[in-house]
């Protein structure tokens, strides 16, 4: 099965993506992850201002099949949480790299430890 894996993003082995923007890093789950979970019915995200360590659990995705923790690909401070996915969890399934993003983090480090698209593709 072919999954969308945008080459401009970096990826964690736990299936989160990170998009380095000018002022923050936007984080979501990969197309592969949303497909594995199935229809997402509930999203729990941290409050703005929450401090995250790299690899630390920051939220929950609940689908009709499973409950899955979401992990921070980078350390930093949460500067935005996507309330649209809390209100409409199906956005994570419909547009995981667009409207289905989860949080934005002011990073406390770089993204060098994350996988590029081709390395991530090998893990799935």
* CATH class annotation: Mainly Beta
Task: Count all strands and give the number.
Answer: 9
Q: Give the tally of structural domains.
A: 1
**CATH H-level name... which superfamily?**
RNA polymerase II/Efflux pump adaptor protein, barrel-sandwich hybrid domain
SSE pattern, N- to C-terminal: EEEHEEEEEHHEH
Biggest sheet: strands side by side, in what order? 1-2-3-9-8-5
Specify the CATH architecture. Beta Barrel
Poorly predicted regions are none
Number of helices: 4
Give a short summary of the structure.
This protein is 19% helix and 34% strand. It is built from 4 helices and 9 strands.
Describe this structure in words.
Residues 24-106 form the Lipoyl-binding domain. The glycine cleavage system catalyzes the degradation of glycine. The H protein shuttles the methylamine group of glycine from the P protein to the T protein. Strands 1-2-3-9-8-5 form a six-stranded antiparallel beta sheet. A three-stranded antiparallel beta sheet has the order 4-6-7. It has one domain (10-123): RNA polymerase II/Efflux pump adaptor protein, barrel-sandwich hybrid domain (OB fold (Dihydrolipoamide Acetyltransferase, E2P)). It is 19% helix and 34% strand. The chain contains four helices and nine strands. By secondary structure, the chain is an alpha+beta fold.
């Amino acid at each position: 099965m072919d999954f969308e894996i945008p080459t401009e993003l970096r990826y964690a082995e736990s299936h989160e993506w990170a998009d380095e923007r000018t002022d923050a890093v936007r984080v979501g789950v990969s197309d592969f992850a949303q497909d594995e979970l199935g229809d997402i019915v509930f999203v729990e995200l941290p409050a703005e201002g929450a401090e995250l360590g790299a690899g630390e659990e920051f939220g929950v995705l609940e689908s009709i099949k499973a409950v899955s923790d979401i992990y921070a690909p980078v350390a930093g401070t949460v500067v935005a949480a996507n309330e649209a996915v809390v209100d409409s969890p199906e956005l994570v399934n419909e547009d995981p790299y667009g409207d289905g993003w989860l949080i934005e983090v002011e990073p406390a480090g770089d993204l060098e430890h994350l996988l590029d698209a081709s390395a991530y593709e090998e893990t799935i």
